Amino acid sequence: MATYQERLTGLLAIGMPERLARIIAFRPELVGELGVAAQVAMNPGLEIAPRLAAKQGAKGPLKRRRRTTKYQKNLSKALVEENGKQRKKNGELKKGKSPGSILKAAHKKARKMTK
Fold first, then answer.
1. Residue ranges of the domains in the chain?
2. Is residue 41 within 8 Å of 55, Cβ to Cβ?
3. Is the predicted pLDDT of residue 15 greater than 70, yes or no?
């Protein structure tokens, strides 16, 4: 087990506030609740450290995102309009309206806009 000073410097190195780091370094049984980063800081010789370093290596190429369609853009515009129509000034829904009624009307409007 590492000494108090080694535990304290490890916790400060991962960016933990000094007041909290002093408490945790003094009472190592609290480390289990903090997660892997704190456990590695408390016990630098743990075998978790090499696995974490390998996991944080260079990431592969990002997956390309799908292009937004005309319908999606129209639905976004229609949702903004319907939200404004079916809500009061204070943000509450008008009487008899629900989030479902907003979506239903927005979908209907978006379909008409795409034709």
1. 4-55, 70-114
2. no
3. yes
Question: Phi-psi bin for 96: left (phi > 0), alpha (psi -120 to 50), beta?
Answer: left
Tell me which range, 19-23, 38-42, 49-53, is most confidently predicted by mean pLDDT: 19-23
Please write down the HEC assignment for all residues of the chain: CCCHHHHHHHHHHCCCCHHHHHHHHHCHHHHHHCCHHHHHHHCCCCCHHHHHHHHCCCCCCCCCCCCCCHHHHHHHHHHHHHHHHCECCCCCECCCCCHHHHHHHHHHHHHHHHC
Q: What is the torsional sign of CA 52, 56, 58, 61?
A: positive
Q: What is the pLDDT of residue 76?
A: 95
Tokens of 86: 């079916």
pLDDT of the residue at 75: 96
